[in-house]
Amino acid sequence: MSFLQVNHLEVTFGLRNGAVKALRDISFSLERGERIGIVGESGAGKSVAAFAVINLLSRPGYISAGEVLFEGRDLAQLSPREMRSIRGNRIAMIFQDPMMTLNPVLTISQQMVECLQAHRNISRRDARAIAVEKLKQVQIPSPEKRLDQYPHELSGGMRQRIIIAIALLMDPALIIADEPTTALDVTIQAEIMELLLELCASNNVGLMLITHDLGIVSQVTERAIVMYAGRIIETGPTKEIINDGQHPYTQGLINALPQQTVPGHRLNQIPGSMPSLQDIPAGCAFNPRCDFVMDICKSEIPGFTRSGGCSVACHMVQAMVESARQEI
Fold it and tell me: Does residue 130 sit within a domain?
């Protein structure tokens, strides 16, 4: 069994005018030390998938079907007390806005020491020593001094490094990073992602990276999962998806990258927008925006077809693969 195995996961939000499904039939796995990226536009369901994995969904959202097996235990079935022993301990999460994560009225030391003492029976002195060591790991200069500072006294890049240090406090087996570089400038983004990659590799930590940036995914992850309207529509080795994306939506994301555009010309974009969860089109949810739409796309949800090293949920790809097999 895989280190993390998500099987047919479904997340529902109960609203006044009826329940809506934010995730539909999500299945993927992650091996120890492996790095995967989950990509898609805003509203694709990336962050909901991350919160569902650590069972951190707040009402009216809830896991309505499926299972999340982590080290053999179904996290969806654990009690809040049992989950607290896993969250922050075996699984750590890095959120996209460090100022929303860090408590502005507590020093960095107070926050790191409290985190350690919540999970381990150690003294404040020993906890502070561990905190200093973790700050050194994430290349924070003068770590003893930084511990006694408040979040507002640090730069954005420094705060994000602090968040990574806090995530590493318990030596987790898995880190979930939800858009960890969104609020940072490009040079700091590169430094943070390089640091995260180095730390995961040196500590054999699994990484689940949630992002809309295919450029970051191509540099950091080994496998990629492309989501659209709450479903996985393509998954496979990152290099293969970046170099030869099969699903029209994946191709649209790649073509929208700035480096794919001739200088001085308008950026490429996918026409239309992500559908509302309350108004998902019948059949393939991408069909209103797709240049290759067929009649079947408007009535039947496509199953996965193996194409190269990737699995693709697309009727067009399925037809092409079957046609190629008949020619052989």
Answer: no
Most confident range, picked from 80-89, 143-152, 262-271: 143-152
- Domain span at residue 72? 4-90+170-327
Where are the alpha helices (H) located in 8-77, listed in sequence order?
A: 46-53
DSSP 157-190: HHHHHHHHHHHHTT--SEEEEESTTTTS-HHHHH
- Rounded Cα gap, residues 157 and 66, in angstroms: 37
Tell me, yes or no, whether 146 lies in a domain.
Answer: no
Q: Which residues sit opposite 94 in a β-bridge?
A: 177
Residue 266, domain CATH:
3.40.50.300
Question: Distance of CA 192 to CAs 18, 88, 146, Å?
Answer: 41, 20, 18
Question: From the CB of residue 5, how many other CB atoms can be counted at a distance below 10 Å?
Answer: 17
- Describe the chain by its helix, strand, coil percentages, rounded to 5: 40, 25, 35
Left if phi > 0, otherwise alpha if psi is -120 to 50, otherwise beta: which for 264? left
Task: Report the candidate in 327, 316, 275, 221 with the shortest Cα–Cα distance to residue 21.
Answer: 275
Q: How confident is the model at residue 40 (pLDDT cuts 50, 70, 90)?
A: very high
Residue 111 reports pLDDT greater than 90? yes
What phi and psi values does residue 256 have, to the nearest 5 degrees?
-80, -10
Show the CA angle centred on residue 29, arms to residues 24 and 32, nearest 5°. 150
**Cα–Cα separations (whole angstroms), residue 181 to 34, 191, 212, 308:** 20, 10, 11, 32
Contact yes or no for 159/101 (Cβ under 8 A): no
Is 14 within a domain? yes
Higher pLDDT, 84 or 128: 128
Q: What is the pTM of this model?
A: 0.91
3-class SS of residue 235: strand
Q: How many domains does the chain have?
A: 1
Which of 58, 50, 195, 166 is CA-nearest to residue 102? 166
